[in-house]
Structure formats: structure tokens, C-alpha cells
Amino acid sequence: MRHATDQDHDVSGRTTSAVARQGNVQAMGEAAGGAAALPGQGRPAFVQAGAGATYWGPGNRLTFLLTGAETGGAFFLAEMLVPPGGGPPPHVHSREDETFHVLEGSLTVQVGGETLSASAGDSAFLPRGIAHSFKNAGSEPAKALVLTTPAGLEHFFAEVFDSSPGDPAEPVSKELIARSIAAGPRYGLKLLPPTRE
């Protein structure tokens, strides 16, 4: 649990407290006529089922639900399908936090040296700057919602992953791996060597 005396660092490296951050949000709200102005507010977004772009990456399929274009850059939301044995190699995001909410099946999540077993209904928060990966160790496909904050990572997926709404036609290609390694730094993403099991 976070207490009002807990301290963090703001973007300039200065120490801030939860009370100071709360006061800043309150002051923003008062300046805006009583409601704090947050990124993405003021413009509703609606995306019909099946309308989002779909991409196959290394070990999973992503269907875009809401991108930064719809959320004012606040977040990116996707539905992820991970076939048995699927999942990406270890990687580190320097710009986004990721949150997974498992809808069906289960995922084994490696994060910061810990192993988490996430089943339907479970959620996991993976902060930026910490190496992580996940794998479907089960015999059925796993489905999860993936939320990245702030938005932006969807551009990496659109550039690098293979566009395909169906099942993957073949295993991960050397071309996909090469595109991932080349594009990663532009998106604050570092790919790490796979861990041995």
C-alpha cells in the first residue's frame, strides 16, 4: 500500500511525495473548472469488434483494440492470443509499463527474476525498465488483454510484426527477428537472449 509520505522522483529527478502529486492533480482540476484534464479526455473512442488491425509476432497474435490515436496517447490496448508454447523472448521496455489481464488459459510470466503463474481472471503489472517475458506452457491457447501506458508501442508492432488475422502460416522467421532487433531501439525496446529452461 502506498502512503502519503512515500517519495518518488519526477521526470527531472527531483524528489516528490504522494501528497505533492495529489496537490498538483487537484490544482490542475481546479484550473480546468473542477475536473483534472488527463491525456485522452474529451474525445470518446469506439472500435467495433473485429475492426482492429491484427499482427503475428514472435509467439503471439495481437489485435489492436484502442491505439494512442484513439486515446490521445494515454494508452494502447490489445487482445493477445498466445498458442501453446508461444510467447516472446525476454525484453525490456524503457518507455511503457505493461499490464496483462488473462481472459482464457494461463501464462507463465517471467519478470525481474520472478516467475508468476497467471490464469483466467489474474492480472500482472510489468513496470518499464524490468526484463520480462511470458509463455503459454499449457495445451490450449491463452487469451489476454494487454494495456501499455503510455501509448506508442503499437507502432513497433505495426512496423515489425506480420499482418495476418488468421493462424500463423509458419514459425517465426529470421526476417521477423531481424526486423525486431533493428526496430527495437527506435521504440525504447531491448530484446534479450532467450533464457534456457
Notes on the structure:
The protein has 197 residues and is of the alpha+beta class. It is built from four helices and 14 strands. The strands form four sheets. The protein has a seven-stranded antiparallel sheet with strand order 10-7-12-5-4-3-13. The chain has a three-stranded antiparallel sheet with strand order 9-8-11, with no helix packed on it. A two-stranded antiparallel sheet has the order 1-2.
Present the secondary structure layout.
Blueprint: E1 7-9, E2 15-17, H1 18-31, E3 54-57, E4 60-66, H2 68-71, E5 76-82, E6 91-93, E7 97-104, E8 106-111, E9 114-119, E10 123-126, E11 132-135, E12 142-149, H3 153-160, E13 162-163, H4 174-183, E14 189-191
Antiparallel strand pairs: 1-2, 3-4, 3-13, 4-5, 5-12, 6-14, 7-10, 7-12, 8-9, 8-11
Please give the share of residues in helix: 10-25%
Q: What is the overall silhouette?
A: globular
Number of strands: 14
Biggest sheet architecture: 7 strands, antiparallel
Q: How many angstroms does the end-to-end distance come to?
A: 34 Å
How much strand? Answer: 25-35%
Task: Strand order, main sheet: write it out.
Answer: 10-7-12-5-4-3-13
Annotation field: number of helices: 4
| Rg result | 18 Å
Structural class: alpha+beta
Average pLDDT confidence is 79
Unreliable segments of 5+ consecutive residues: 1-37
